[in-house]
Design goal:
356 residues; 13 strands; 11 helices; alpha/beta; 3 domains; Rossmann fold
């Protein structure tokens, strides 16, 4: 019978340190294939294979498209490509970003769950936010196992905490002890075949990550329409709940957990404020130029109107600037704290650092 011979590892910030603590404990004769996704900037260069080759006995590399899968190797996702598996071979997909990342962790977990079923072990290491948490549900849905780095051992506990909070974890361990657990689990025998009917949502989302046009043009949706729009393409977002993780996906495939969507929306608000500040500054500058021209032409009434426009623009720009500099909240709290603050100031409850 087959064993749990497919290991998927997801990491982000602090992940290099966790991986270099993990891989030395993996034996060179490990009878399993290992797939690693570390969040990377799209334009970056990944030195992770070199680092892992130095850290442990198993050979690590960025795989080539359609490369056959072998045991005893570590396959590392290259920049700007999702690491997937199709028909027993590597697939490097330029599919839609998930949680703002490509490569992302959830697509790897889903792809391996769909291809190998109960043979998969999914591991979540150090990182911020919660990429990987949704994909764990797919692994467990087909009989796989889940291991999470102990949040107290992680440089950035966000991802391990999110993964553990799903209730899907079969084990929690510090990075230096994860290899021992993986070796033991990789020897467990499992059912011979992938479940004949994987969950519909798993098949749908695995196809999206692989740029499946069937999913894009399908009348079906992965969830219920929400009143929110995709930060990347402005399409309608569908709300999906799986394994206790609330998330959102648009028609073309961009996906976000609720936590990541909040961060992306905040980034969008900031971008909009900078655009507003630029427009207001330009409007004031143009109004001042027109005021000077009116003065030079003896048109004092028109000059006064442009002066008012310039002053209004300056005042509005200052309000936007204070928002960008994070001073608006402090000013409001200071006003409320002053003796004799006006009616309506009671009950103001603002959490310091909210949204950071």
């Amino acid at each position: 019978m087959p064993t749990r011979d497919v290991i998927a590892i997801g990491a982000s910030a602090g992940g290099v340190e966790a991986l270099t603590a993990l891989v030395p404990g993996l034996p060179g004769e490990l009878d399993a294939s290992i797939f690693v996704v570390l969040h990377l900037p799209a334009e970056g260069t990944s030195m992770l294979p070199t680092i892992l080759n130095r850290a442990g006995p198993l050979p690590a590399a960025h795989p080539a498209e359609a490369e056959p899968i072998r045991r005893g190797r570590i396959y590392v996702a290259p920049p700007d490509r999702h690491l997937l598996v199709r028909d027993g071979r590597i697939r490097l997909s330029p599919g839609p970003r998930e949680n703002g990342h490509r490569p992302a962790i959830d697509p790897l977990f889903r792809s391996l769950a769909l291809s190998f079923g109960a043979r998969v072990i999914a591991v979540v290491l150090s990182g911020t936010l919660d990429d990987g948490a949704a994909g764990l549900a797919s692994v467990k849905a087909v009989g796989g196992k889940v291991l999470v780095q102990d949040p107290e051992d992680a440089a950035y506990p966000g991802m391990p905490e999110a993964a553990r909070s799903t209730g899907e974890a079969d084990g929690v361990a510090p990075a230096s002890e994860i290899a021992d657990v993986l070796v033991a689990w990789s020897r467990e025998e499992v059912a011979e075949h992938v479940p004949p009917q994987p969950p519909h949502l798993l098949r749908y989302e695995a196809g999206i990550a692989d740029l499946g046009t069937k999913q894009v043009h399908s009348p079906d949706s992965p969830g219920h329409p929400s009143a929110l729009t995709c930060p990347e393409c402005n399409g309608v977002l569908w709300e999906v709940t799986e394994g206790g993780v609330e998330r959102y996906r648009c028609r073309v495939g961009h996906a976000y957990t609720a936590q990541t969507l909040a961060v992306e929306q905040q980034n969008g608000v900031e971008a909009a404020l900078w655009s507003a500040l630029r427009a207001l500054e330009e409007r004031s500058a143009l109004a001042r130029r027109m005021r000077e021209r009116m003065h030079a032409g003896g048109r004092s009434h028109s000059a006064l109107l442009f002066e008012r426009q310039a002053n209004e623009g300056v005042a509005q720009a200052e309000q936007v600037r204070r928002l960008l500099l994070g001073q608006e909240e402090a000013a409001i709290l200071e006003e409320v704290a002053q003796p004799g603050a006006g009616a309506g100031s009671e009950g103001v409850d603002r959490e310091a650092g909210a949204g950071s």
